[in-house]
């Protein structure tokens, strides 16, 4: 369940100003030849137009480290306890800053390797610049996780078949598209999804799309699990 997603973004943005205490235990980063790694709670870096966040934002979290071989090849090692509630959303963020009608295209390619245990989803998280609307696209999920709000309908958009859920987290509207079956690689045509929300459903207006994120909402990964983003690119025009 995508709980308090606005606060996780706010915390990531404010991270440099925060004092990182001992409330989160940190594991060691992978021994790969990474160009960047961090085990800091809100550690982040900018690489080739993408911002990578470790982003341990939920309560009761364990240890987690994020590493990157490049802007588009990165991963996470996490050991979060088998308790309820999202612990983290390590992610890659690409700034778009264009209105829906001014976008000629907005697509993403993904290739991931995820565990067969634990509780998590691998998802896009798309925000308007005012943070009034959050569009989540779940391409993979495992364990007892679910979307905010209620089921609306099933649709085929952007090259995938989804179950659509609509709700609110108390801070913003949330539209969740849950892929009907798990996928580890593919292309998502995001713009038709945004236009469907705007034009076909009237759930939002001609919003300016701020960030397109992709990452892992991790509820539990007891014993230590690895989440590998073999390739993740976001393109717009």
TrEMBL record:
<feature type="signal peptide">
    <location>
        <begin position="1"/>
        <end position="33"/>
    </location>
</feature>
<protein>
    <recommendedName>
        <fullName>Glycosyl hydrolase family 12</fullName>
    </recommendedName>
</protein>
<comment type="similarity">
    <text>Belongs to the glycosyl hydrolase 12 (cellulase H) family.</text>
</comment>
<keyword id="KW-0624">Polysaccharide degradation</keyword>
<dbReference type="GO" id="GO:0000272">
    <property type="term" value="P:polysaccharide catabolic process"/>
</dbReference>
<keyword id="KW-0326">Glycosidase</keyword>
<dbReference type="InterPro" id="IPR002594">
    <property type="entry name" value="GH12"/>
</dbReference>
<keyword id="KW-0378">Hydrolase</keyword>
<keyword id="KW-0732">Signal</keyword>
<dbReference type="InterPro" id="IPR013319">
    <property type="entry name" value="GH11/12"/>
</dbReference>
<dbReference type="GO" id="GO:0008810">
    <property type="term" value="F:cellulase activity"/>
</dbReference>
<dbReference type="Pfam" id="PF01670">
    <property type="entry name" value="Glyco_hydro_12"/>
</dbReference>
<keyword id="KW-0119">Carbohydrate metabolism</keyword>
<dbReference type="InterPro" id="IPR013320">
    <property type="entry name" value="ConA-like_dom_sf"/>
</dbReference>
